[in-house]
Amino acid sequence: MSEASPLLVPKTNSPVSSEPMANKPLTGLETNKVMSSILVALCSFSCVFSCFTDCFKGTDGSRKYGTVTKKGLWTYADPGSVDLSKYKIRIADFVHAVFVVSVFGTLVLLDRKVHTYKNVG
């Protein structure tokens, strides 16, 4: 998943999740605020988590993915003879995560459909 994918989810779902239900304006408004907040939080987590992933070429030549830890890359695939300890978490990963989530938050909050709720009726 690319880092742009979590940004597209709130953009495409904001017209659906930000409009209150016509038959129950107050309840629908509160529900949609919560649903939009959960959606933005999940996409923010996805952006941050993607900063702590990496890939390597396996012994068979295919690309394998994993999560970066203090000890090295943690992967579900068999690494074979590849040394995964060189894929350790660095301070740059945390800096990258802070910048990614700040850009994501800025772009989401600049979308008027995400933070503006109109009461229908």
Structure description:
The mean pLDDT is 78. This protein is mainly alpha-helical and 121 residues long. Helix content is 53%, strand content 11%. Strands 1-2-3 form a three-stranded antiparallel beta sheet, with no helix packed on it. The chain has four helices and three strands, in the order ααβββαα. The N and C termini lie far apart (40 Å). The longest helix has 26 residues, at 25-50. It has a domain at 1-51 and 112-116. It is found in: Membrane. Keywords: Membrane, Transmembrane, Transmembrane helix. It is a multi-pass membrane protein. Residues 1-22 are annotated as: Disordered. Pfam families: DUF679 (PF05078).
Helix content: 40-55%
Distance between the termini: 40 Å
- Note the main sheet: 3 strands, antiparallel
Give the uncertain stretches in residue-range form: none
Category by helix and strand content: mainly alpha
Order of strands across the biggest sheet? Answer: 1-2-3
Report the total helices: 4
Number of strands: 3
Tell me, briefly, the overall form.
elongated
Work out the strand percent.
5-15%
Membrane topology: Multi-pass membrane protein
Keywords: Membrane, Transmembrane, Transmembrane helix
Pfam families: DUF679
Subcellular location: Membrane
In short:
Keywords: Membrane, Transmembrane, Transmembrane helix. The protein has 121 residues and is mainly α.
